[in-house]
Amino acid sequence: MSTISPAMPERTYWRCRHCLLPFVLLNPQAIPSGGTCGCCGSQSFDYMGKVQVIKQKPGNLAQGCRCNESCAKAQGPRCTCACGGLHHGTGMDARFQHDTASCTRILIPAAPKTQLRAKDRAIEWRAALQAAQKGVDSWMAGQSGLATDDRDFYKQLQLENMLNLAQKARQHEPRMQILQDLQQLLNQESTK
User: Fold this and answer.
1) pTM of the complete model
2) Buried b vs exposed e over 36-72: b needs ≥16 C-beta within 10 Å?
3) Omega prior to 77 cis, within 30 of 0
4) 125 CA to centre of own chain
5) How far is CA 11 from the centre of its chain?
6) CA–CA distance, 36 with 45 (Å, rounded to integer)
7) Helix pair angle (153-168, 112-144), 10° resolution
8) Higher-confidence residue: 7 or 28?
9) H or E stretch at 144
């Protein structure tokens, strides 16, 4: 793997942790302190990496540059197009809207329908995560009243691990499935 040539402006991909919408910033741009997602209001973002050119198979290069919306609005930093990263992510540039001195919204370029789906995902994610965290906290409070020998440290580790895995997952369905599995585990504990 090689990165794009230094002559081209370096583009970096970012993604909102809640609605999962990706966006591109041109270096030396950075997410402003206190920056919020223009779609869901989150202040948590993941760095996905710089645009990278992935070496293509000889057959792909023979077809010529197929730069279109799929390259310009690519959802991630890996470019397999014959343009060599020149156009990759150019349609994903985010803009900053300064609402107040301390609040900057990051306006992510996405179709209105996509933004609505992403906002719904973020709402569902926050509610499920909050419920799971509350359930784990409640279970942990019940464990703290037990003698050390009676506590289920394996279960505690398992619950904490599931919460961490859900928060690290970067696709909506897998993270929701992990939280659903966690809730089932907690429900099994409460029926014992």
Assistant:
1) 0.79
2) bbbbbebeebeebeebbbeeeeeeeeeeeeebeeebb
3) no
4) 12
5) 17
6) 9
7) 170
8) 28
9) helix 112-144
